[in-house]
Amino acid sequence: MSKNNPFCLSFGKEPDRYVERADAYSKIAETFNSISPSSNCYCIMGVRGIGKTVLLSTISNDFREDKDWVVVSLNSGRNLLEMLAAGLYEDAKLQKYFVEASLNLSKFGIGLNIKKNPPISDIQIAIEKMVKIVNDKGMRILITIDDVTKSKDVISFACAFQDLIGRRMQLYLLMTGLYENIYNLQRDKRCSFLLRAEKVNIGPLSLIGMKNQYMQTFQCSEKEALKMAAFTKGYSYAFQVLGYIMWDKDCSLEEAIPFFDEKMAGYCYEKVWDDLSEKEKEIITLLAEKGEMKTRDIIAKTGSTDKVFSVQRDRLVKKGIVDGTSHGIVRLALPRFEEFVKMTML
Questions:
Q1: What is the DSSP pairing of strand 329-332 with strand 322-323?
Q2: Among candidates 282, 287, 275, which has minimal Cα distance to 334?
């Protein structure tokens, strides 16, 4: 086939073949755009490769097209407060307002040293002044942070954000992260507002949406497209990987499986496995061997208790690794993850 492969193996990049998450998108966008938002913060959670970054990018790109919004993307590995100040100052439609206000941000290496005003010495005070200027011009600010983890810089930013929204400023935060990273962050008493933040736990893609994309791309029958979609179990990255291989090698689903296993292991599953605790690995290994199990059988095999296993099961479901939709039964949620686990345990 043509070298212009419409599927993408890069994490976070919006591919040509993309199944929209309309419900999650609408929920976040409508909340932030409402006159009296129910929340100034949303956390998008899910397993690696489920599509968190793509959803965040789609929302932030659309908001950038709206003249009433200013979007600043931050990197959780850097000084977030200084990045926010720099991002606001460098925005083309805002810079003139900061210059007119004679904001001296030279202490932080931002803008010019305006000699008639002493430099602002505290970064949070600087941001507060900048946000007020933006809000006074009728604009709201959306801050995005992808793949957030707990760190000193993130804690400092969270404290400042909580203070600013407490002052009724039109400031909004959209973050993505693994369930365990968001959980660890919100447990810190300095980030208590995250307990009240809205959560969007990203689940499987629409089977119909995947089927339609596969039919359109490969000009195959509905039956074959459904088979391909079901194979991926709705896992966003698997949808891309399978499509990429079948396009690149012009092969059938059955012929693509060995290449699928190789790419999923190297690009995704090794990291998913490394992130699990030893107890979680024990449970996952049992599920890989049996396919699916009754909860009482897992409890007996692991020597656990109903209460302890209930917590473990809940965490694995929230991490997106286990499917707990059937009462009393659990199974793996990721396509062919059981094959990866079996190979890992050899």
A1: antiparallel
A2: 287
- 213 and 332 in a single domain? The answer is no
- 57-83 pLDDT per residue, tens: 999 999 999 999 999 999 988 899 999
pTM score, two decimals?
0.90
pLDDT, one tens digit per residue, over 14-65 is: 788 889 899 999 999 999 999 999 999 999 999 999 999 999 999 999 999 9
15 in a structural domain: no
Do 160 and 289 sit in the same domain of this protein?
A: no
Residues 196 and 212 in one domain: no
Note down the domain range covering 310. 276-344
pLDDT at position 112: 59
End-of-domain residue from the set 201, 221, 242: 201
